[in-house]
Design goal:
The protein has about 230 residues and is α+β, with helices and mostly antiparallel strands. It is about 30% helix and about 30% strand. The protein is globular, with a radius of gyration of 21 Å.
């Protein structure tokens, strides 16, 4: 399970209805809006089949995180080990959360490296739901926003697929044959900021730096830390 929370999702109501998309004309939306409150989405992405468990709550403290962990625990069939990939947020390491973990021996936590939350696959789901459902939505209340999020998750789970992410350089024919940071998150079920994460970081950074033109930076890796050394390209 890839777990994280998307906090402070605003329920925004536009001052005037937007005009729909028409041939030759873009859809419109007013620049001003009315805030009707916020909610926090806790989500757990099953990286084996792409399904999502989601709960909307008013806060993102450790108490809410434990409630969500209980929901995840109930959804996983008995007898299966649960490997949870989470970020280094303080609520994820609260003593109450660690006590909960001690009482549930089939659960294991694996934290992404500091400042590398983008490695958590559920962040991709947050990006998708933001672009497809939340950003251009009109919500007159927090309850309406939460209902829209729940409906989207139900529709997503009907046609879910394992999440595979990578970078494809379409504008560089010479480099198109090279694989640049293709990384299946199904390999991360047992990672703990270890070689799988470091290898992915290295491939991602190399692919970005190779596009920089006259100068190339070669990454050097020491354990879980990354340093960049500037060198002149040949």
């Amino acid at each position: 399970m890839s777990i994280d929370e998307k906090s402070h999702i605003q329920a925004l109501d536009r001052t005037q209805p937007g005009l729909p998309l028409k041939p030759g004309k873009c859809g419109t939306m007013t620049h001003d809006y009315k805030r009707n409150g916020t909610t926090t989405l806790f989500a757990a992405l099953n990286i084996l089949d792409g399904t999502v468990i989601g709960r909307c709550m008013q806060r993102q403290h450790h108490q809410e995180f434990i409630k969500f962990l209980n929901a995840v625990e109930r959804s996983v069939p008995a007898g299966k080990i649960i490997h949870t990939i989470a970020g280094n947020y303080a609520a994820h390491k609260h003593p109450s959360v660690l006590a909960w973990l001690a009482d549930h021996p089939r659960g294991f936590f694996h934290f992404t490296p500091t400042s590398a939350s983008w490695l958590n696959a559920v962040e991709g789901f947050f990006s998708i739901i933001t672009r497809r459902r939340i950003r251009r939505g009109t919500f007159k209340s927090v309850a309406g926003l939460q209902d829209a999020i729940k409906r989207y998750i139900r529709e997503h789970n009907k046609a879910s697929k394992p999440f595979v992410w990578g970078q494809i350089r379409r504008h560089h024919p010479r480099q198109a044959q090279q694989t640049a940071c293709t990384f299946r998150m199904t390999q991360c079920t047992r990672l703990s900021a270890g070689p799988a994460v470091v290898a992915c970081c290295r491939a991602f950074i190399v692919s970005r730096l190779e596009d920089r033109g006259s100068q190339t930076r070669s990454p050097k890796f020491l354990g879980d830390h990354v340093t960049i050394a500037r060198t002149q390209s040949s």
